[in-house]
Amino acid sequence: GAVVSQHPSWVICKSGTSVKIECRSLDFQATTMFWYRQFPKQSLMLMATSNEGSKATYEQGVEKDKFLINHASLTLSTLTVTSAHPEDSSFYICSARRASTGELFFGEGSRLTVL
Amino acid sequence: AQKITQTQPGMFVQEKEAVTLDCTYDTSDPSYGLFWYKQPSSGEMIFLIYQGSYDQQNATEGRYSLNFQKARKSANLVISASQLGDSAMYFCAMRGSVSSGSARQLTFGSGTQLTVLP
Q1: Are B25 and B76 in contact (CB under 8 A)?
Q2: Which chain B residues are within 8 Å of A41, Cβ to Cβ?
Q3: Which among A32, A50, B7, B95 has the fewest CB atoms less than 10 Å away?
Q4: Which of the four pLDDT bands, split at 50, 70 and 90, describes residue A101?
Q5: What does R_g of chain A's alpha carbons equal in angstroms?
Q6: Which of A88-102, B5-19, B96-110 has the highest mean pLDDT?
Q7: How far apart are CA A85 and CA A17, in angstroms?
Q8: What is the rounded distance in angstroms from the CA atom of residue A78 to the CA atom of residue B108?
């Protein structure tokens, strides 16, 4: 089956630093990727929709300057948490939409802890 | 707007027994898709089963079946012959029609934590 890889799977950083998370579709082209955030024991909340070659569409309440999304190629989208603070600590999950079939595949998730 | 409701925050089931996880939805889209995902403690989202709103038959995938009742807007997941490895969080999700503009992302319910007892 199709594989979506997220890297890093976990990261610990100091408050004020920026962290980049990669979401890569390994064996298919993804014109659209989605970024979700999940707090412990809660549901996945859509943060933004990332379209290859264009600006991301952010959900209401998500700061676009805080969570920078880049979708530079058909297989890679990145989420950069800028000037991270402890409240940004969360589990971030991406999903990629296979261009040819429309199917959605999830990455393994990235656990961010900001000290 | 779409909404998914999972009213069972936690469920327990004895090993080898069947269990039903509830999911109701609300949408104005004429066409939509319903999904169930399993999320073990490791965090990855594992796709289980899909039901299209126009599918005539309830979806089945191995031990998973979806009890789709369109008029009642419910899409309950039935897991037969529960196994210890089924213990996880389960999410119901919906994707709308292209015309509504909501086709591209999934809307998730709050999840149900299933614990299978030995």
Answers
A1: no
A2: 89, 111, 113
A3: B7
A4: confident
A5: 13
A6: B5-19
A7: 8
A8: 22
Place of tokens 């064996």: A27
Tokens of B84: 């210890």
Q: Is A90 on the interface with B (CB under 8 A)?
A: no
Instruction: Say how far apart CA B63 and CA B79 lie, in whole Å.
Output: 6
Q: B78 exposed, middle or buried (CB, 10 Å; 0-12, 13-18, 19+)?
A: middle
Cβ–Cβ contact A14 with B under 8 A? no
CA distance B77 to B49: 9
User: How far apart are the C-alpha atoms of A46 and A14, rounded to whole Å?
Assistant: 25
Give residue-wise pLDDT tens across range B46-68.
999 999 999 989 999 999 999 99
User: Count of alpha carbons within 13 Å of A46, Cβ hemisphere only?
Assistant: 22
In sequence order, the 6+-apart residues with CB closer than 8 A to the CB of A112 are A10, A11, A13, A19, A21, A81, A84, A88, A89, A90, A91, A92
Contact status, residue A49 vs residue B104, Cβ threshold 8 Å: yes
Q: How far is CA B23 from CA A12, A26, A32, A62, B36, in A?
A: 35, 32, 27, 27, 9
